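Entry 14: structure prediction run for Cathepsin S. Input pasted below.
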Amino acid sequence: RSTALRGSQDREEETVRKDIWKLNAKTVANHNMNFKLGKTSFSLSLNALADLNDEERKGRFLRNTNTMAEEDRPRLVLEADVESVTAIKPSVDWRDTDRVTSVKTQGSCGACYAFSAIGAIEGQLVKAGKSLKSLSVQQIIDCSNKTWGCAGGFQTIVFKYAKDQVIVSNDVYPYSGKKEDCKLNNQMSGVQVKSFKWVPNDEVKLAEAVGRIGPISINADSNHNSFFFYSRGIYFNEQCSNTTYNHGMLLVGYGSEDGKD
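Run finished. Output tokens:
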């Protein structure tokens, strides 16, 4: 009877997932019709998240909305302001100069903060004259006691951890996508952070920082269905907030596409 019950539950679950997929497929198709008509600047595509509902996607991949205390925010002093846009380069893409490692998949582990911070450290490693290599996100998940592993965290905490402890390569401490016991030992060598700064919440100053410094660890409001199915183009959503954020990402450049910045 238990086998029959499990089979029935599996069929019910499959039906639920198919219905969710169909609903998401319709949403994507409607959006892409508007994209073809020039009514939106980006297109969508179905992916591995298409059989999850909105609540499930947000629960797996987005962290709770929080902010760090002001005393935890050493500020980066930048020259550019809204009136001096000419002070920055017209476009930057650090992927073209090997400052960015390959795109990673975090899976169901809510470690966006670690991927974001580690990506910024990788870029600075190259700027310092070292070879580009993937550093260990898993080390942060397992060993940084002030973050919450796969349940979220803050890039600031990662940078502070990296000032006190070496970050080893992903080859030495590979990603598993789940929180485990810390495997770091004194025989492992790696890189450390000397200092870090916060970039002001201003697009022009952020552009200057990216151009001058390299890939920047950022936070964004990703609490929107279209974000999860983004495919190409310039993502623009009027509902996005510039003060509320729930997802860490790596900003690798900026520019214009089809006349849009």
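Notes: The beta strands are 42-44, 92-93, 216-220, 230-233, 247-251, 253-254. Will compare against the previous run tomorrow.
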